[in-house]
């Protein structure tokens, strides 16, 4: 698969090139469809992919899996936040239960 960035094109914003391997039969059908619709093969592929993406966005099984992935991302983020707080002793906004001491006493010095 080839994937590179190109300049903007016909309202699509920044364009990335994607190489797709097709059988000769599928390519021949795609060529005929593009000719019948008076469009380029690239436009036919783009339209087909955009339609498939829109259809997929409303697929209940995809939406369910997407929610599972979001929940997993949140769990991982919470774990990493906790690890960072533990490493750097960053306060979480909760009051500390240990006895407080003066800053000088914590440094081992006195005034």
TrEMBL record:
<dbReference type="InterPro" id="IPR013321">
    <property type="entry name" value="Arc_rbn_hlx_hlx"/>
</dbReference>
<protein>
    <recommendedName>
        <fullName>Ribbon-helix-helix protein CopG domain-containing protein</fullName>
    </recommendedName>
</protein>
<feature type="compositionally biased region" description="Low complexity">
    <location>
        <begin position="90"/>
        <end position="103"/>
    </location>
</feature>
<feature type="region of interest" description="Disordered">
    <location>
        <begin position="82"/>
        <end position="111"/>
    </location>
</feature>
<dbReference type="InterPro" id="IPR010985">
    <property type="entry name" value="Ribbon_hlx_hlx"/>
</dbReference>
């Amino acid at each position: 698969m080839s994937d590179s960035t190109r300049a903007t094109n016909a309202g699509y914003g920044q364009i990335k090139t994607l190489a797709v391997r097709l059988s000769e039969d599928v390519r021949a059908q795609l060529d005929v469809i593009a000719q019948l619709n008076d469009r380029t093969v690239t436009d036919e592929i783009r339209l087909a992919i955009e339609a498939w993406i829109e259809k997929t966005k409303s697929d209940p099984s995809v939406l369910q899996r997407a929610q599972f992935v979001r929940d997993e991302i949140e769990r991982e983020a919470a774990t990493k936040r906790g690890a960072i707080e533990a490493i750097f002793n960053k306060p979480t906004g909760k009051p500390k239960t240990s006895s407080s001491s003066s800053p000088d006493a914590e440094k081992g010095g006195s005034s």
